[in-house]
Amino acid sequence: MNFDLVLTTDAGRAPAGTAPEGTPWVHRTFTPGAGPRWRAIAEMLAANEAAWQEADHMLILADDVEIGATAVSELFRVMRTCELRIAQPSLAWSSHFADPTTLHNPCFVFRHTNRVDTAAIAFSTDALRQCLPLLREVPDAALLARLLPAMQDDPLAAAVIVDAVQALRTAPAAPEEFDEPTWPAALQVDGPHRESSYSWGGLNLRGQYVCLFTESRDEFLGGLAAGYACAVQEAQPIGEVFLTHFARSLETAPGPLELRPPVPPTPALRPSPIIDHRATA
User: Fold this and answer.
1) Is residue 119 part of a domain?
2) What tens digit of pLDDT does each residue of 75-130 get?
């Protein structure tokens, strides 16, 4: 029997209401250890793998996130039906947020993006197992928001904002979530993690997959702008979203992130202390 997990800390908020019948997911709590949030979560999961390895998906919620039980069931249903590996419920327009790309767009079932909000993030079990070393070694939220999409095999279709459901962040994002991350040496290379914030494509309400880099670009851009027009009164930010995405569509689609170890400095050559007498007559 398939089942899914929702994970919060002891201080977190359980999904509100009752899940629809026939959507088996279980809510579990844990006591976080010391240190950064994601490192504590990764270490707890690695030490208790037997408790989640049989699940299909896991939704991990920060303490300030509110979401309904019906929305959780729908999130897992979309992930299972569409075989999504990393997904985030869209954030309601009344929510606090760090990046506007993660806000709800009513013109889509889901969107592939290069940003996620790690306050509410779901993984397939296989994806979670593969991401545990990253969560442990790079626990900074601003880095993970970019790296979780970028470090998958196909960043164009890696991470998803599920607009079919909404969650609410009730506390402001930390100041460092708005800043450009300080990249470790191995990540100081050009790649998808250094891009500005974009939606790459998605499944619209008519069941069509549209993409920024295919013939369906105009339909995708129209849906993206129309969805945000439902919540934004001023025309300028909607126009900026349209123009920045249109300009990006004229360039090459993002490729996978290629990490290269830092190149060690070449040691300076010193004159040999051995005198070669063969050169003298």
Assistant:
1) yes
2) 999 999 999 999 999 999 999 999 999 999 999 999 999 999 999 999 999 999 99
Pairing, β 86-91 against β 159-169: parallel
Number of H helices, E strands in the chain: 6, 10
Residue 42: CB atoms within 10 Å: 20
Joined together, the tokens standing for residue 143 give 């880095």
Whether 209 maps to a domain, the answer reads yes
Strands 209-211 and 199-204: antiparallel
Domain limits at 240?
A: 4-173+190-258
Residue 273 counted as domain residue: no
How would you class 276 by CB atoms within 10 Å of its CB: exposed for 0-12, middle for 13-18, buried for 19 or more?
exposed
- In DSSP terms, which residues pair with 65 in a beta bridge? 169
Q: Answer yes or no: is 24 within a domain.
A: yes
Given a cut of 70, is residue 277 above it in pLDDT?
no
pTM: 0.88
